[in-house]
Amino acid sequence: MTFTEVVNHRRSIRKFNPDKPIDSEIVKQCIQQATIAPNSSNMQLWEFYHVTSSDKLKKLSNYCFDQSAAETAQQMIVFVVRKDLWRKRAKANLKHINKVTGGKDPKDYNRREKFANTYYTKLIPITYFDFLGIFGWLKYIIYWIIGLFRPIYRQGRKSDMRIVAHKSIGLAAQTFMLSMTDVGYDTCPMEGIDTLRIKKLLNLPFGAEINMVVACGIRVPEGIFGNRFRIPFEEVYKSV
User: Which end of the chain has the smaller Cβ count within 10 Å, N or C?
Assistant: First the structure.
């Protein structure tokens, strides 16, 4: 399929064919493609849990309220936000910078390399560090005052950074679903889920957050609930 055909063929499938299994390795490759999705500051604050065991699938279906997509899914992917790993991921970016610069001393970096190094050693800690939400509100007030005089990044609160991390993994989830469509598989993203029970099922730490669960399989005709409906394009498209 062309990319346009992939985009148009992808639907949220509510029922999958129980007699047509899907290849776990191919699904894994689609997850790998999801990791090259764009994300904020290349922090990659995400994890992808590929659920294939029948026991865990049954429990996960129950935690997705036994939606038909979950009940009939051959496999499921849990998209997990790991904002709590920001220090580790910042260090990984710094390690990459050091590698591509040939291990130069930071004092010998060129202008672009110095900016990248400063970004992950100073700006990222300022952006992500918080304590009981207090530092976040302090940053918010400071940014607001500075913003009276010039444009400035304003998302300084803890809740703001949660949104940033969830937006990034949402881009990864869409990339995954389009990749699945391209190989002839189908998906259904689900947000009607018990996130606490899913965290316990996957033994996730306190700081991890569930973004969505994506059911995977091969569609049956009744798995598509009618023709696709979208608000008229003229109503949502604004040329300025």
Answer: C
Q: Let me know whether 79 and 176 are in one domain.
A: yes
DSSP state of 47: E
Rounded to two decimals, the pTM is: 0.94
> Residue 215: what are its φ and ψ, rounded to 5°?
-80, 145
Same domain, residue pair 89 and 133: yes
- For residue 112, the tally of other CB atoms under 10 A from its CB is 8
State how far the Cα of 210 lies from the Cα of 31, in Å rounded to an integer.
16
CATH number, domain of 32, equals 3.40.109.10
Residues spanned by the domain of 34:
3-84+168-226
Report how many domains make up the chain.
Answer: 2
Q: Which residues does residue 190 pair with via DSSP β-bridges, in sequence order? A: 213
pLDDT digits (tens, 9 = 90+) for 164-219: 999 999 999 999 999 999 999 999 999 999 999 999 999 999 999 999 999 999 99
Q: What would you report as the CA-atom Rg of the chain, rounded to the nearest whole angstrom?
A: 21
Predicted pLDDT at 132: 86
